[in-house]
Design goal:
Blueprint lengths: L6 E5 L9 H15 L3 E7 L7 E5 L3 E6 L3 E3 L2 E2 L6 H11 L4 E5 L4 H10 L5 E6 L8 H14 L4 E4 L2 H10 L3 E3 L6 E3 L3 E3 L21 E6 L8 H14 L3 E6 L5 H10 L6 E5 L6 H5 L4 E4 L8 H8 L3 E5 L13 E4 L3 H16 L5 H11 L2 H17 L5 H9 L5 H22 L14 H7 L1
Parallel strand pairs: 1-2, 1-7, 2-4, 7-8, 8-9, 9-12, 13-14, 13-16, 14-15, 16-17, 17-18
Antiparallel strand pairs: 3-4, 5-6, 10-11
């Protein structure tokens, strides 16, 4: 089905030059939407010393780097109002129809959803992660997310488990028409991640079965289950003299891995690569036969998909949306416990040693399962439904915001009203007819001729 071309703004704290699942998702989705005839821009924060202002990325993706400093993990400080002057000018001069915010920890994304309604721009939000409900940080971030999603037009999750988590955290319920019972909003969708299979082809030469390499590519942090890796690696090396580890990544748990390697004299068995650039991931993966994921929480796990596409047999903890990614004959699951992970790894070593896993067949299956063209097409369907839906007026948005609770409701309603007044002030101070509107756009036909 052919959809009307839209002008779309992807907004998130997490984007290039940082490397990660969210960053890659935004870039690949934007590139495929551009190829399908839409205009797409990205709005994110600056990166010192000189990544600020406007940049262009192939294939014709325009990126606005707003001069905002970060506080931690590439996230900006929530402020609600400082972003509005930048947002209003960019959205107006680029003639944007719809904004697509990404990641629940992105302040820019949540603030864009708040501001967009003043300009009559429709809103979509994609959640990429799972979060808890008990600790103080989760309680605060969940309340911020619920406030942002009260008036969003549609929500996309990358897995069914992620959908359940986001619905609960964002309070995405409404009363059914035929009763007073609460039901999940019909505007919550599930669209998985994807990958470019051609970038993750298996090794041309068969990997030696004499020495089996277990590859770990992950941020070395607690939530990625590195403590499990620290506990199991020495036991696996002791049980299987022909099994070695290749660990790529950086993070606060790197010292723990260095210490366990020194303590057990495993310098020749556990290779620590440090940070690995995304373009080098495939070269690291094809050195091994087994990919190990020890995450304690995972909404989708794009690294698992990349490893399977590169022909590796996967061992993973059974958490979050991981069981949805691959068929069960391509992956072994374990509880996030040391002994069960040892069992799963032993099972994987036996499968690989006996030649029961075919890397080329695994690559072909993953290639047929996931592709960005299909993700872009399904996202277009969501965009089309949002554009055709009825917009919420200010009074309706205020009423929905008050539903956040006796304390949070009035606070966020005041923020909403002040945001409206600030927007009106900016309309008076910098009238839209004085803005320098973008008249020229990227000519894709000319670009293809140059190629």
């Amino acid at each position: 089905m052919k959809h009307e071309p839209l002008a779309i703004a992807m907004i998130s704290d997490f984007f290039h030059p940082n490397v990660g699942g969210v960053e890659n998702h935004i870039f690949m989705l934007s590139a495929n939407l551009i190829r399908r005839g839409h205009k797409v821009i990205v709005i994110t924060h600056s990166h010192p010393p000189d990544r600020v202002g406007v940049r262009w990325l192939l294939p014709g993706l325009k990126v606005y780097y707003i001069p905002f400093p970060t506080i931690a993990s590439s996230a900006t400080l929530p402020n609600y109002f400082t972003f509005l002057p930048y947002f209003r000018v960019i959205i107006a001069r680029e003639h944007i129809h719809l904004i697509h915010a990404h990641a629940s920890l992105s302040s820019l994304g949540q603030e864009a959803i708040l501001h967009a309604h003043h300009l009559g721009v429709r809103t979509v939000f994609t959640d990429h992660s799972l979060f808890g409900f008990e600790d103080a940080a989760s309680i605060l971030t969940n309340k911020l997310l619920a406030a942002a999603l009260k008036n969003v037009d549609a929500v996309i999750c990358v897995s069914h488990t992620g959908r359940e988590n986001t619905v609960l955290r964002g309070q995405l319920f409404e009363k059914s028409e035929d009763s007073s019972a609460l039901v999940v909003r019909p505007t919550v969708y599930v669209i998985p991640n994807a990958l470019v299979a051609e970038q993750f082809t298996p090794a041309t030469e068969p990997v030696s079965s004499e020495t089996i390499y277990i590859v770990v590519l992950s941020r070395l942090a607690y939530r990625k289950g590195i403590d499990l890796l620290v506990a199991t690696a020495p036991r696996i090396c002791s049980a299987f003299p022909n099994v070695n580890f290749i660990v790529g990544g950086d993070g606060p748990k790197l010292n723990d891995l260095l210490q366990v390697r020194e303590r057990h004299l495993l310098q020749d068995r556990i290779e620590l690569l440090g940070p690995v650039r995304h373009r080098d991931v495939r070269d690291v993966l094809v050195r091994g036969s087994i990919f190990l994921n020890t995450s304690l929480t995972e909404s989708f796990g794009i690294a698992i998909l990349e490893a399977a596409c590169a022909g590796l047999y996967v061992v993973s903890t059974r958490v979050g949306g991981v069981p949805e990614i691959l068929p069960h004959d391509m992956i072994s699951f374990a509880k996030p416990e040391e002994d069960d992970l040892i069992r799963a790894l032993s099972e994987a070593v036996a499968i690989v040693s006996n030649g029961q896993h075919d890397p080329m067949e695994a690559h072909q299956r993953v290639k047929n399962f996931y592709n960005w063209g299909e993700v872009a097409e399904r996202t277009e369907v969501v965009y089309d439904a949002v554009v055709k839906s009825e917009q919420k007026d200010l009074w309706t948005r205020m009423q929905r915001t008050m539903e956040l609770g006796p304390f949070a409701g009035p606070i966020y309603t005041i923020i909403l009203v002040v945001d409206c007044l600030f927007f009106l002030f900016l309309e008076w101070l910098m009238p839209r007819h004085d803005l320098d509107f973008v008249q020229m756009h990227w000519e894709h036909d000319n670009f293809r001729q140059v190629q």
